[in-house]
Design a protein that fits this description.
Blueprint: H1 3-20, E1 26-34, H2 41-51, E2 61-67, E3 70-73, E4 78-81, E5 99-102, E6 106-113
Parallel strand pairs: 1-2
Antiparallel strand pairs: 1-6, 3-4, 3-5
């Protein structure tokens, strides 16, 4: 399950971001995961729960924003969903696409620190 190595990297990077920002802990991490990134969101959630134990993210939640795979057809200037399994053939003009616009993302987009005690 490669999601465990991905989750471990997310935890490590989120800890570094929190330290840099002077936070003691993290309450949530938001990641964008493309449809073609080869990551199963449910497996990533499970792996994150394992990877966060004993870290500054021990109580953190993982928010996964799924990004659809979209291609661009230069021939007719149409953007279209490629689906799963991916099919890079333009449904509007019946020609192959050479440009994938989204769907391979795997990135941290937000790290929410634990609120400071008042």
């Amino acid at each position: 399950m490669h999601e465990l190595s991905i989750a471990t990297a997310i935890v490590e990077q989120a800890e570094e971001i929190a330290r840099t920002d002077g936070a003691d802990g993290v309450s949530s991490v938001t990641v964008r995961v493309g449809e073609l990134a080869g990551v199963v969101p449910d497996a990533l959630h499970f792996a994150f729960e394992v990877a966060r134990e004993g870290t500054a993210l021990s109580g953190a939640s993982l928010v996964v924003e799924q990004v659809p795979a979209l291609a661009w057809c230069g021939g007719c200037a149409e953007e279209f969903a490629v689906g799963m399994p991916p099919f890079f053939w333009c449904p509007a003009c019946d020609r192959p696409s050479r440009e994938l616009r989204s769907g391979r993302e795997l990135e941290i987009t937000g790290v929410e620190p634990v609120p400071a005690p008042t």
